[in-house]
């Protein structure tokens, strides 16, 4: 259950939101952003806008004590907030469950789609953090993969790609959608989903290097080639 603000959230964290157009990645000026506690969706906390660069002001909001994120426990180590974003000429967009940790600055990127006649409303719900939610174990993979395709399997040199393909499902699920994601965005998103921003800098650096190493290994060896 999402946390509601109470005496159990005595600390503070900060949010800043950046709004772009999904069509050409240009910043959206004068977007209207309303912020709610996800546990109390009827209570408006803040209402802010974006500047010429598509950036909002930095907003300080309650968060649980820092120590909740420093070791495993039953206490949720982050607060959850909901953003409702509107801008002239764009479809409205909502994000529920955005996470905020004590003492951290959370950066939220939003891409608005140009308004269409259908007037569709986009809503995204952030799932529970990997370290706090109850998720099934990772699907085991063989250490050695059989080669069933001709051609170059291992690339001739290690490269850092601009984009990588993210398969939204099990490697065995051919019906799952593929998404082209910027490599830098992918690394940042994986890190924010698997570790806490409150950890010591050296710990965060070690985890990010491990994520980068694993990702580049999969790219370099074309690990999922047989599933494409």
Structure write-up:
Helix content is 14%, strand content 31%. The chain is built from two helices and ten strands, in the order ββββββββββαα. It folds into two domains: 11-125, Immunoglobulin-like (Sandwich), CATH 2.60.40.1120; 136-228, no CATH class. Strands 3-2-5-6-8 form a five-stranded mixed β-sheet, with no helix packed on it. Strands 4-1-7 form a three-stranded mixed β-sheet, with no helix packed on it.
List the topology elements:
Blueprint: E1 11-21, E2 32-37, E3 40-49, E4 59-63, E5 79-86, E6 93-100, E7 105-112, E8 122-125, E9 163-167, E10 178-182, H1 183-194, H2 201-220
Parallel strand pairs: 1-7, 6-8
Antiparallel strand pairs: 1-4, 2-3, 2-5, 5-6, 9-10
Helix pairs in contact: 1-2
Quick synopsis:
The chain is α+β, with helices and mostly antiparallel strands. It has helices at residues 183-194, 201-220; strands spanning 11-21, 32-37, 40-49, 59-63, 79-86, 93-100, 105-112, 122-125, 163-167, 178-182. Strand 2 (32-37) and strand 3 (40-49) form a beta hairpin.
For the largest sheet, list the strands in their spatial order: 3-2-5-6-8
How does CATH name the architecture of the largest domain?
Sandwich
* Radius of gyration (Å): 20 Å
Cα(first) to Cα(last) distance is: 37 Å
Q: Please trace the helix and strand order, writing H or E for each element.
A: EEEEEEEEEEHH
Q: Average the pLDDT over all residues and give the rounded result.
A: 87
What is the oligomeric state here? single chain
Low-confidence stretches: none
CATH topology assignment of the largest domain: Immunoglobulin-like
Helix content: 10-25%
> How many beta-strand elements?
10
